[in-house]
Amino acid sequence: MEDRRCGVAVIGAGTAGLHAYEAAWNMGADTLLIEQGSGGTTCTRYGCMPSKALLAAAHAAHAARRAGGFGIRTGDIHVDGEAVMARVRALRDRFFAAVLEDYDAIPADHRLHGTACFTGPDRLVVGDTTIHADAIVIATGARPIVPESLDPVRALVHTHETIFDIETLPRSLAVLGAGPVGLELAQAFARLGVAVTLFDEDDIVGGLGDPQVNASARAALSQEVTMRLGVTVTAEAQDGRARLSWTGAEAGSESFDLILAATGRPPCLDPLALDTTGLALDDHGTPLFDHRTRRCGDSAIFVAGDAGSWRPVLHEAARGGRIAGMVAAGGEAPRVLPAFAITFTDPQLVEVGTGFADLPDGARIGEAKPADNGRAVIERTTEGLVRLYADRDGRLIGASIAAAEAEHLGHGLALAIDRGISMADFADQPWYHPTLEELLQQAARDALGED
């Protein structure tokens, strides 16, 4: 057994792990990166980038079909499923190769391949090596789960880790899970000509906590995707296809060529033997940690990225990795930024800052409809709803949005909320005309009781 000592050990070479390694290294710590696979990030390999490549093709097909509404005549639209999926994979591989270059650039003697297992709060075993570290960052990511109810048709089930490897488009697809991943891919495949049905036990889409925005988003998205919400699904194999039956808010059954399971991504923590660390764990076995420092209690163990099951989006994984690595190496943690999440459907769905369920007493709410916005009318993007939240003192604290190009609205809101701007000052900013951004001014004025 070989003994090795280091200042900071980072477990996992995904987005959070790579940023944690870089931050600790830049702080001057003797840093070791441990990876059991080939390295690389969920975003490039399975998530953000291939899904957006598929969405780009879907939006192109959708734009071609609706061009007539602008007086533009096109011929029949034909979607070449094999070409679409080949382009998705080519782009995915390109982005993934770039991330691997960053991983491979780390000196070989600062990388260790294998599965890490704790044997104490400051010790790890990786193969035949025992590692003694001053601080340890857990950045092991998360993995998709497939419900046991799909066991009878497991051969027809995909997750976001495998769906981009299909050679061509199926005729029909069942999507289980109306979160951001399921919602984005459901609409993408539907716009590419696949008959898509979306199932979920809840009636919330894209994580929208505001009931009015959720209702608006459901109304818009159900025009393209059949939605079966508030139902429980069972499956059986039938003539090479998957026969799904559902009960709950409604009942029925239907056969599908493929199933996409988008029912959650729990953290990958089982191999770590966290019971040997003395850390406080939640009911799911995830370490409790400070969201500002990423430190677990008063230990020298930190959690970053999806391994912590908190704000599982790339910018939080990257920033969380940097914070964990920096604090593990003796640095100071910055402030916690407002929550910010985007679902890249059409309309796009955005949640920023304080959510509807957590609004304080006396909160003010203002709203605006894209149907009343000149630019949205011109662009034929009138679906959705914008809702802004302020506290009783008039400070902007949150928003929930379903609107075209909402990603751009969300970034401005996140900055305004972080800077503590008042709703009155926000409404008084320069809002160029005609733009979709004017929706924010209209909602702010509505919250203030102005016309």
TrEMBL record:
Keywords: FAD, Flavoprotein, NAD, Nucleotide-binding. It comes from the Bacteria. The active site is at residue 433. InterPro entries: FAD/NAD-bd_sf, FAD/NAD-binding_dom, FAD/NAD-linked_Rdtase_dimer_sf, Pyr_nuc-diS_OxRdtase, Pyr_nucl-diS_OxRdtase_dimer. Gene3D superfamilies: 3.30.390.30, FAD/NAD(P)-binding domain. Its cofactor is FAD. Binds 1 FAD per subunit. GO terms for molecular function: flavin adenine dinucleotide binding; NAD(P)H dehydrogenase (quinone) activity. FAD binds at residues 52, 306. Residues 341-443 form the Pyridine nucleotide-disulphide oxidoreductase dimerisation domain. NAD(+) binds at residues 177-184, 264. PANTHER family: MERCURIC REDUCTASE, PYRIDINE NUCLEOTIDE-DISULFIDE OXIDOREDUCTASE RCLA-RELATED. Belongs to the class-I pyridine nucleotide-disulfide oxidoreductase family. This is Dihydrolipoyl dehydrogenase. The lineage of its organism: Bacteria, Pseudomonadati, Pseudomonadota, Alphaproteobacteria, Sphingomonadales.
